[in-house]
Amino acid sequence: MNRVYLSLGSNQSPGRHLRAAIAALQDRFRRVEVSPAYRSASVGFDGHPFINLAVSLDTDMEPLDLKRWLHALEDREGRRRDQPRFSNRTLDIDIVFVDQRIIDADGLRIPRQEWRQPFVLKPMLDLEPDFREPLSGETLARLWPVHQPPAGTLQLVDLSQLD
């Protein structure tokens, strides 16, 4: 059984798409822990603000199979794969950590390099501050001050109040 940490984001009807993704994850994996949600500016392009959160779950799926399952979930929520990597999207789900595993195979890189981005790290920190990032061995709580953004960059939001 693997403990997996996912980053979820959306900037197109984010409340609807993120709630649908959480429900699908709960249906498939049963016990899913969900972090608070945060609003932040889009990164890499001029677009609508994103709402991001993290989830942790246990699965016996291999990471590549999980990646395929998550891509299918993104597609069901209207994810367009014909657009540039940095663009508005209905749903983006990334595997950030799989236990303490380090994976670099078949287009899957774990830990995901974007874990350092505040919009990924803060929700992960909220879920499990004592989780040790596999490459450095440091806890998320110790890493947060190094990657913490300026005040106001991340805004806590109530997911149930979003469209």
Structure, described:
With 163 residues, the protein is of the alpha+beta class. Helices cover 29% and strands 26% of the residues. The chain has 4 helices and 8 strands, in the order βαβββαβββααβ. Strands 1, 2, 3, 4, 5 and 8 form a 6-stranded antiparallel β-sheet that branches. It has a two-stranded antiparallel ribbon with strand order 6-7. A hairpin with a 2-residue loop joins strand 6 (103-105) and strand 7 (108-110). Helix 3 (118-127) packs antiparallel against helix 4. The N and C termini lie far apart (35 Å). The relative contact order is 0.23.
Give the SSE layout.
Elements: E1 2-10, H1 14-29, E2 32-34, E3 37-40, E4 50-59, H2 63-76, E5 92-98, E6 103-105, E7 108-110, H3 118-127, H4 140-147, E8 155-157
Antiparallel strand pairs: 1-4, 1-5, 2-4, 3-4, 3-8, 6-7
